[in-house]
Write a structure and sequence with these properties.
single chain; 14 helices; 0% strand; globular
């Protein structure tokens, strides 16, 4: 509907939306400037995905709600849906890390539109049919986005050996820029997990506190684990990502009434798992043919699955309402009556459904973007800004530097002298 609807919080909670938008635009944007020759593409296309995704989410929600209910649904432009659009678009930003540098702008448009639609479908199934609540999006945003992106790359038929090694290098300054993105994400992550709870400040405060403790712990254990792997030194990519794993892994369980040691322990586990993933598992998976440009499985995929599992286990620990809220049930749905064992099973089902929809739709999307409907990038041109941005420093193009004796290079040098 037209205009800004003041319902559901009006403009008084615009700050929470702004914090979430800062994470998406600046946090993810600068996190993706790590590649030496794809800095503009990382931050620029991330920005483009935010603009397209924030708008397309409204249409996708209307289409999905209409499809399931059998009648047309309007979607109001209000703070509630503004924050929801940012949360859903975050799934695409996560997927972008998997196909980072591998896609043309046209392919990015297609992937964004398909994925957002599928995220909304999956959320509808999990929330309204399985009745499983995922406040911080461990399953519905992080795990979904990671495995949709990895499946898309697999569907595109890309392997590690297809990419020139030089194109995947980083520099001292590009890694410093990515670290800026990490710091922004780390500071604002509690807002991301708690933004939609502006109408219940009691639970919102609990989410912020649990996320705060968890992400502090992952910061500490990421540094410790990286030093362990590299014998006293730190690997920047592990620090850029492992420090954030606490925000991912605590997402689903963040509204639960748990003692402070629990989020600290959960966040610590997230930092260890993510850092070991980047240091040891990520290279192994790429050797096995599972290409993941920015390693999103290690920050979002595996911690997201673990976050869903921790929440499922928490339902077994206590059958009272108090672990979630002072006045709500496990499912956040008043007409659903389940014991803790049943809810545990539905939590596991939500994880499997989310992964299944993400992988299948990602594979199909990867095949679609290979068709002639979208311009594609040759493998030797991947992870390079020059084909899509006006860059006046031509000497920065690694394709020219790698073979200075080629006729192309000689002709360009002759033209420059003339």
């Amino acid at each position: 509907s037209s205009g800004i609807n003041a319902e559901y919080g009006g403009l008084k909670n615009y700050t929470m939306y702004m914090n979430t938008a800062v994470m998406c635009v600046i946090g993810f944007g600068f996190l993706y400037v790590f590649s030496k020759f794809y800095i503009w593409g990382g931050v620029g296309f991330n920005f483009f995905i935010c603009g397209l995704g924030f708008l397309w989410t409204y249409i996708a929600i209307s289409l999905v709600e209409s499809m399931f209910d059998g009648k047309f649904h309007k979607v109001a432009v209000n703070i509630d849906n503004m924050m929801l659009s940012a949360d859903i678009t975050a799934a695409v930003l996560i997927s972008f890390g998997a196909f980072y540098g591998f896609t043309s702008p046209s392919q990015i448009v297609l992937i964004t539109m398909v994925e957002i639609f599928m995220v909304v479908v999956n959320e509808h199934i999990v929330l309204k049919f399985l009745h499983v609540y995922d406040q911080g999006g461990s399953m519905l945003i992080h795990a979904f986005g990671a495995y949709f992106g990895v499946a898309t790359v697999f569907g595109m038929g890309l392997k590690k050996e297809h990419l020139p090694d030089r194109h995947r290098t980083t520099t001292y300054f590009s890694d410093m820029g990515a670290m800026l993105g990490t710091v922004v994400l780390w500071v604002y992550w509690p807002s991301f997990n708690a933004a939609s709870l502006y109408d219940d400040t009691h639970i919102q405060g609990r989410v912020i506190g649990n996320t705060y403790l968890s992400i502090m712990a992952s910061c500490v254990t990421a540094f410790a684990t990286s030093a362990l792997i590299h014998r006293g030194k730190f690997e920047m990519i592990e620090i850029q990502n492992g420090t954030l794993a606490g925000g991912v892994i605590i997402g689903t369980i963040s509204p639960f009434l748990i003692d402070p040691w629990a989020p600290v322990l959960i966040g610590a586990i997230g930092g260890v798992v993510s850092t070991f993933g980047y240091g040891l598992l990520h290279p192994y998976l790429e050797d096995c043919g599972i290409l993941d440009s920015a390693g999103v499985q290690m920050l979002h995929g595996i911690p997201g699955i673990l976050g869903g599992l921790f929440a499922a286990l928490a339902t077994l620990a206590d059958n009272t309402n108090y672990m979630f809220s002072y006045n709500t049930t496990w499912t956040n749905t008043t007409d659903v009556d389940r014991d803790r064992g049943q809810q545990f099973g539905y939590h596991l089902g939500a994880i499997l459904v989310s992964l299944g929809i993400a992988v299948v739709s990602g594979l199909i999307t990867g095949v679609l973007v290979r068709l002639p409907i979208c311009p594609t990038i040759e493998k030797e041109d991947m992870l390079i800004d020059h084909d899509f941005w006006v860059i006046h420093d031509k000497n920065h193009d690694p394709r020219l530097k790698k073979d200075k004796k080629s006729n192309i290079y000689a002709n360009q040098m002759a033209e420059a002298k003339a």
